[in-house]
Amino acid sequence: PIKVTGKENVNPKQSYVFVANHQSFLDVFAVYGWLPNNFKWLMKKEIRKVPFVGTACKVAGHIFVDRSNPRAALQSMEYIKKELVDGISTVIFPEGTRCRNGKMGKFKKGAFVIANMTQVPIIPITIDGAYDILPRGCKCLHWSPVTLTFHAPIECNGRDAENVERMMEEAESVIRATLENKQ
Questions:
Q1: Most confident of 10-14, 79-83, 113-117, 149-153
Q2: Where are the alpha helices (DSSP H) in the chain?
Q3: What are the tens digits of pLDDT across the range 130-177?
Q4: What is the torsion angle, in degrees rounded to the nearest 10, for the CA atoms of residue 139, residue 141, residue 142 and residue 143?
Q5: How many of the other CB atoms lie within 10 Å of CB of 12?
Q6: pLDDT of 49-67, one tens digit each?
Q7: Do residues 16 and 153 make contact, with C-beta atoms less than 8 angstroms apart?
Q8: HSE-up of 180 (CA within 13 Å, CB side)?
C-alpha cells in the first residue's frame, strides 16, 4: 500500500524539478503511479543498457546523462532546459544512485543547477518504506507500507551559486527530516 501526502503542493499544469530520495528500484513505480504531472526522468546513461528498460526510456523521451563527461552532462542540462515548459517537469534522484543501507546519501548539485538555470521551482519528494520492500541487491520482495510525501515547492531566488547551495540544502534537509521523524 502507498500512502500519499502533500498532493496539494503540486499543480499539475506547472513545470517543476522534482527531487526524491532513492531507496529502491520500486521508487520509480511509486513516482509513476502518483505524480500528477507530465515529466521526463533524468537518469544515468548506464540505464540505457538495461534490457527493455533502456529502450522503453529512450522511446518515452527520458533523458540520459553521462556523469563521467561534464560536457555531455551540460548538453543534457541544456536539453532539459528546453523541455521544462508548458507543464513538463523532470524527476531526479539527486543522490545519484539507490541507497545501500536504507540511509539517505548526500545530494549532488545537478538537479539544483537545472532549477537555477530555468528558474523552475523544486518540489522535494520523500519516499519512505520502499527500501524495506526491495533492498538493493535483494531479489525477493517483502511486505511494507510506502509513504510518498510531496513537500512545499522551493522557489528559485536568483541565479547564483549560493542559490543552488540553498535549494540543495533545503531539499535535502526536508527529506531527511521527514525520514527521521518516521523512524
A1: 149-153
A2: 27-34, 53-60, 70-83, 110-118, 130-133, 161-182
A3: 877 777 777 778 788 999 999 999 998 887 888 999 999 999 999 999
A4: 170
A5: 11
A6: 888 888 887 888 877 877 7
A7: yes
A8: 7
Backbone torsion region of residue 99, taken as left when φ is above 0, otherwise alpha when ψ lies between -120 and 50, otherwise beta: beta
The one-letter code for the residue type at 183 is Q
Q: How far is CA 129 from the centre of its chain?
A: 16
- pLDDT score at 182: 65
Radius of gyration, alpha carbons of the chain: 16
pTM: 0.87
Distance CA 28, CA 12 (A): 18
